[in-house]
């Protein structure tokens, strides 16, 4: 079914407000821009901004729902015979190869990352997104495996996968913020990721292979 006119206009308005907010944040710094500043630049009311975004942080991190659902989706859509670890490894390396933003590391992202690092509320929101992503991954693994509610194994697997990703991305972000070029970081990041996921796969083994 095609998108209705009302839904399309709402989506376009939301995107326009987010784009304007991001431009202001990048130019002035996150903590130096108010929601009223964003509303004024977008020619809407403050109430309209909050109709589309629950918090100021969401104006910048508008892809939070997609990020939070990412690992659960990757696991649910994995190939027959593929473990959760292998599926996430494949998707992570594919994101590196294509320069996709979904794991938080991409070319020209250094200015964005610096801004996030200097705003405590954004750091906290990113941490919250990571925790939600891990919880939803655990739920997806448990659901597919038919795990008992008291079985902690899906949560432990999800925590280890998320820890590898968090460590890999933090490694890359530190180097980007220090001024290194993406092309210089990528080879090392791929090598580190292969080693980390290899260790994880050997530890978890064939548990939760997709049938």
TrEMBL record:
Keywords, A to Z, come to:
DNA-binding, Transcription, Transcription regulation
* Residue ranges: DNA binding: 34-53
Taxonomic superkingdom: Bacteria
The transmembrane residues are: none
Q: Which Pfam families match?
A: TetR_C_14, TetR_N
Entry-linked InterPro entries: Homeodomain-like_sf (IPR009057), HTH-type_TetR-like_transc_reg (IPR050109), HTH_TetR (IPR001647), MftR_C (IPR041347)
Q: What GO molecular-function term can you cite, just one? A: DNA-binding transcription factor activity
Could you tell me which PANTHER family the record lists for this protein? HTH-TYPE TRANSCRIPTIONAL REGULATOR BETI (PTHR30055:SF234), HTH-TYPE TRANSCRIPTIONAL REGULATOR RUTR (PTHR30055)
What is the protein's given name? AcrR family transcriptional regulator
Q: Which organism is it from?
A: Streptosporangium sandarakinum
Q: What is the lineage of its organism?
A: Bacteria, Bacillati, Actinomycetota, Actinomycetes, Streptosporangiales
């Amino acid at each position: 079914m095609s998108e209705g006119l009302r839904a399309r206009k709402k989506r376009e308005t939301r995107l326009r407000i987010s784009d304007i907010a991001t431009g202001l944040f990048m130019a002035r710094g996150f903590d130096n821009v108010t929601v009223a500043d964003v509303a004024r630049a977008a020619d809407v009311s403050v109430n309209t901004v909050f109709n589309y975004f629950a918090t100021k942080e969401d104006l910048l991190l508008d892809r939070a729902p997609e990020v939070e659902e990412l690992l659960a989706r990757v696991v649910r859509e994995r190939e027959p015979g593929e473990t959760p670890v292998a599926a996430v490894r494949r998707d992570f390396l594919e994101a590196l190869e294509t320069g996709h933003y979904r794991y938080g590391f991409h070319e020209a992202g250094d200015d964005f990352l610096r801004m996030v690092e200097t705003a405590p509320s954004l750091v906290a929101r990113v941490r919250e997104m990571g925790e939600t992503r891990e919880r939803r991954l655990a739920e997806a693994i448990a659901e597919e495996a038919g795990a008992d509610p008291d079985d902690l194994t899906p949560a432990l697997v999800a925590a280890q996968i998320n820890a590898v990703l968090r460590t890999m991305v933090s490694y890359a972000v530190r180097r980007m913020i220090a001024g290194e070029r993406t092309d210089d970081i990528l080879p090392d990041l791929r090598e580190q990721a292969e080693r980390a996921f290899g260790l994880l796969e050997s530890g978890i083994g064939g548990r939760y292979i997709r049938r």
